[in-house]
Amino acid sequence: DTWLMEGLANYSALMMLEETKGKKEAAAVLLRYRDNLLVSLGEGRIVDDAGPILWGERLINSRDRGSWNTITYEKGAWIFHMLRARMGDDAFFRMLKAMPTQFARQPLTTAAFQQFAAGFLPAKAPDADLEEFFSQWVESTGIPRIELSTTVSGKAPRVTVNASLTQTMVSKEFGTMAPVVIRFARGPAETRWVHTSSDVEEYSWTFRAAPARVELDPDWLILRRE
Q: What is the pLDDT of residues 143-158, one digit of tens each?
């Protein structure tokens, strides 16, 4: 499928930029891609609304013909970036290395790639078959705004962090996984991947020390609005 080839080609260029110039430079490009997808088309519509990336060249024949390039190349890069975040770097690069062998003598379709990519997710990962991921990001449209609010209670060695996530600017059917990063004054940060939906989603975690900060997706691992 077109989006797979073009999106991966574009993301490969971004990975080279990341290797030579650093993650901040690559992240800045991804944010420009995000802004391009949010450009208004009038009548309350944005570029991303022109159609799902799965449509491929059919987007050229839509009334928003210029959107094809942005959706195919730039949203395509975002999709691979989000898959990388879900898998972790080691698994993602193993997947890329295995792709030429896996698909050497067969078409690289979206359905086949979904099944293939799911095999590189961590054990017991949510959305283990990537059904929701592909349904939202590949087969549909939508870029959510996600807001995080937290409260902290208790004392060391039992500190409770309650998190509440509110999602807007997308359809009621939209849902995705988002990382919440908990940072401490000492020791490594911890990341919790949580599900967002049209309902307010609430989570609670217990730690041995009080966090210094609790942040939603500080490294821009998912495509979302400010």
A: 999 999 999 999 999 9
Phi, psi of 128 (to 5 degrees): -65, -25
218, 225 in Cβ contact below 8 A? no
Q: What is the pTM of this model?
A: 0.95
Going by DSSP bridges, is the β-strand pair 176-184/158-168 parallel, antiparallel, or unpaired?
unpaired
Query: Within the chain, where are the H helices?
Result: 2-21, 23-37, 67-69, 76-87, 89-102, 110-118, 131-137
Q: Who contacts 192 (Cβ-Cβ below 8 Å, separation ≥6)? A: 163, 179, 180, 182, 203, 205
With a CB cutoff of 8 Å and minimum separation 6, the contacts of 209 are: 156, 157, 159, 184, 185, 186, 187
**From the CB of residue 30, how many other CB atoms can be counted at a distance below 10 Å?**
19
For strands 145-155 and 158-168, give the pairing. Answer: antiparallel
Residue 13 neighbours by CB distance under 10 Å: 14
Per-residue pLDDT tens digits for 28-77: 999 999 999 999 988 889 999 999 999 988 887 666 767 999 999 999 99
Exposure string (b/e) for 185-205, b if CB count within 10 Å is 16 or more? eeeeeebebbebbeeebeeeb
